[in-house]
TrEMBL record:
<dbReference type="InterPro" id="IPR027304">
    <property type="entry name" value="Trigger_fact/SurA_dom_sf"/>
</dbReference>
<dbReference type="InterPro" id="IPR015391">
    <property type="entry name" value="SurA_N"/>
</dbReference>
<feature type="domain" description="PpiC">
    <location>
        <begin position="280"/>
        <end position="380"/>
    </location>
</feature>
<keyword id="KW-0732">Signal</keyword>
<dbReference type="GO" id="GO:0030288">
    <property type="term" value="C:outer membrane-bounded periplasmic space"/>
</dbReference>
<comment type="function">
    <text>Chaperone involved in the correct folding and assembly of outer membrane proteins. Recognizes specific patterns of aromatic residues and the orientation of their side chains, which are found more frequently in integral outer membrane proteins. May act in both early periplasmic and late outer membrane-associated steps of protein maturation.</text>
</comment>
<dbReference type="InterPro" id="IPR000595">
    <property type="entry name" value="cNMP-bd_dom"/>
</dbReference>
<keyword id="KW-0143">Chaperone</keyword>
<feature type="signal peptide">
    <location>
        <begin position="1"/>
        <end position="22"/>
    </location>
</feature>
<dbReference type="GO" id="GO:0006457">
    <property type="term" value="P:protein folding"/>
</dbReference>
<keyword id="KW-0697">Rotamase</keyword>
<keyword id="KW-0413">Isomerase</keyword>
<dbReference type="GO" id="GO:0043165">
    <property type="term" value="P:Gram-negative-bacterium-type cell outer membrane assembly"/>
</dbReference>
<dbReference type="GO" id="GO:0042277">
    <property type="term" value="F:peptide binding"/>
</dbReference>
<feature type="domain" description="Cyclic nucleotide-binding">
    <location>
        <begin position="179"/>
        <end position="224"/>
    </location>
</feature>
<dbReference type="GO" id="GO:0051082">
    <property type="term" value="F:unfolded protein binding"/>
</dbReference>
<protein>
    <recommendedName>
        <fullName>Chaperone SurA</fullName>
        <ecNumber>5.2.1.8</ecNumber>
    </recommendedName>
</protein>
Length: 436
């Protein structure tokens, strides 16, 4: 036994020089506490590597080291706060969504997957670290969009005013060939009867009757014998009552009837030159939304939705009945879950993907968005001329982007003001502080 102890002691004595000469391994440390989360020194180091690499690639100068360090920490604090909000409202980015985001980055940089991996490694990051970085950024973006969107209020009058300005600018180089029917007030007919006649003509036009024939038969306007044809005109060349009614309508659009001091008017845009028309696909879909809670887990919500699918397929209940009874979206639930004809771009990404790809009449598998868990069924799709609404949508997007940037800035300031943030001193900092 004593011989064994001596052997162990001898071995330890032999190892002591090697142990004392081994280089110390620096441990990662907490630099900032942000609510229930932390920012580590390794997080700062990774962000610095990426920033310096990008600056070198773009030949961009960077500020002094202490200023740069402060800016990086500030950004990491805001990222952590937003990431916590994403977790709070249940944003999760699965691997499929992440793959799409990474692919978009590669395409945006005009790189193959291998080239992207090489450039990531050149920044001192592993590809796994890069993917998780992107997952976090996508989750932050979705949470910010969802939470800031709720704060934005755009009035219809604002959209109308902006759309009018855009249409005026667009129409400067547009030529219209306009047809006109004018029904005059007279002693033989009351104003109500004239209006009824105008409405009847519009109905006949919608059923396919020729505008020129009706103009010759009924119009009292100056071009009646020419079939109401005013020829080609720009808006500034038209009579004011024409110009006031024509915005961004496309070819074959019927406008009116509308009233002036002398009677009622109907316009037809026979043709257009120089106007970009917009045709879009609208989708009419219906859905059932289940929201999770402290009582109902994600798994429970999925199980409940799978149960609805089984009932619908078995004929035990209809989609509309289940939507009315169980959907957490009160607006659509009252309409049997129906959302009406909408362009898919109006929906959040996961919902947009479903309504764009599902065959008509097929019910989706349960899927999750920031609003909760859904099943959706596409009822119908249609192609429509949306030149007018496209202009309104463009006006809305301009106003939305302006207000979004303002509200996002205010939201982030409020996040930071209400957060617990504490800088953690390192041991070296404490020693320097004590010496001073």
């Amino acid at each position: 036994m004593n011989k064994f102890k001596r052997l162990v002691t001898t071995m330890l004595l032999m190892l002591l020089p090697a142990i004392s000469l081994a280089a110390p391994v620096e441990m990662d440390r907490v630099v900032v506490i942000v609510n229930d989360g932390v920012i580590l020194q390794s997080d700062i180091d990774s962000a610095m590597k990426t920033l310096k690499f990008n600056a070198q690639e773009n030949q961009q100068a960077l500020p002094e080291a202490d200023v740069l360090n402060e800016q990086v920490i500030d950004k990491l604090i805001m990222d952590e706060l937003q990431s916590q909000e994403a977790e709070r409202i249940g944003v999760r980015i699965d691997d499929n969504r992440l793959d799409d985001a990474v692919q978009s980055i590669a395409e945006g940089n005009k790189q193959s997957q291998a080239q992207l991996i090489a450039s990531v490694q050149a920044q001192g990051l592993t590809y796994t670290e890069f993917r998780e970085q992107i997952r976090k950024e996508v989750a932050i973006s979705e949470a910010r969009n969802a939470l800031v969107r709720r704060r934005i209020n755009i009035l219809p009058a604002e959209v109308e005013s902006m759309a009018g300005m855009l249409a005026q600018e667009t129409n400067k180089s547009v030529n219209y060939r306009v047809g006109h029917i004018q029904l005059r007030f007279n002693d033989d007919q009351s104003k109500t009867e004239v209006e009824e006649q105008a409405n009847e003509l519009v109905e006949r036009l919608s059923k396919g009757e020729k505008f020129s024939e009706l103009a010759i038969a009924y119009s009292k306007g100056p071009k009646a014998l020419e079939g109401g044809d005013w020829g080609w005109m720009r808006k500034e060349e038209m009579p004011t009552i024409f110009a006031d009614q024509i915005t961004t309508q496309g070819k074959d659009a019927i406008i009116g009837p509308f009233r002036s001091g002398i009677g009622f008017h109907i316009l037809k845009i026979e043709d257009v030159q120089g106007l970009e028309t917009v045709a879009v696909t609208e989708v009419n879909a219906r859905h059932i939304l289940i929201k999770t809670s402290v009582i109902l887990s994600d798994e429970g919500a999925q199980k409940e939705l799978y149960g609805f699918i089984r009932q619908i397929r078995a004929g035990e209940a209809t989609f509309g009945e289940l939507a009315q009874q169980y959907s957490a979206d009160p607006g659509s639930a009252a309409r049997d879950g129906e959302l009406g004809y909408q362009t898919p771009d109006l929906y959040v990404p996961e919902f947009k993907h479903q309504v764009e790809t599902l065959p008509v009449g097929q019910i989706s598998e349960p899927f999750q968005t920031v609003h909760g868990w859904h099943i959706v069924e596409v009822i119908d799709r249609r192609e429509v001329d949306r030149t007018d609404s496209a202009m309104n949508n463009k006006a809305y997007r301009i106003l939305f982007n302006r207000k979004f940037n303002e509200e996002a800035s205010a939201w982030m300031q409020e996040l930071r003001a209400s957060a617990f943030i504490e800088m953690v001193q390192s041991q070296d900092d404490e020693e320097v502080s004590n010496e001073l």
